[in-house]
Give the backbone structure.
Amino acid sequence: MFYVFNCMTKKLLIFLIFTSVAVLAFQLKPLKQRLTKVATSIQTPNLINKDSLTIASRVDIPVGYKRVFYKSGSYEDYLRNYSLKPFGSKIINYDNTEYFWQGGHIGILEIPVPKNGLQQCADALIRIRSEYLWANNRKSEIGFNFTSGHYCSWKKYAEGYRPKINGNKVTFNKTANANSSEENFYKYLNLIYMYSGTLSLYNELQPIKAKHLKIGDMLIKGGSPGHIVMICDEIVNDKGDKLFLLFQGNTPAQSVHLVKNLENDAISPWYQLKDDAVIPVSNYTFSSSKYVRFK
């Protein structure tokens, strides 16, 4: 009897020991994963060139990737080689105060922020697109919808046509002298900033699937509050997998800046972009959003 009891006791003891070891191994598995992730993060190459003053030269390419080719003078090439302020420059609000959080960017674009506070997130990208068209003798292509849906072109504005806005009703009448100067061009942009935004761009622009994304395309959530960011560089590996760099303006109006990837240190500041994904970008998280392209 004692022998049987003793055998059962030994078997129970062995069972408890194996069970304890299994439980301990299970509990330590997440810790091992976290430690491995930390070690991997520490070994990640620094992809930032602090002495460089363009987007393309500021950010290196991860191993196994190459930049997607775009011809010189194209909009894609223009964005990729946009000038940056010296590394470490801070995000400055339109009223010359510092933005409250300086931890989400790795570069400030060389684009002025008007003191009137109008050049917010969508407006900053509208300006960049418009300045490219202006500089490349494509002024007739400059035009945007108001939130009401009415189209306002630089061509008609330069001819002296101005909108008369009554609620959602908009009419255009020639009430000013023709003026195609650069100074008048920026007055036109201020008008666009007032009556256009993320909601108008969300409704106006062509939607794009993630597999077709290229430099110049945007991720947008229309509304109040909405947000928008623009792709400014693009790389690809031998498998066809792509990574992208993003920049943004913000509300309040502030310095346009190249954002970090705060979710993936291994590839930051590069982003993987997928359809119907939740994408955190610096101070905003995109969901139920879409990709769009300027006409």
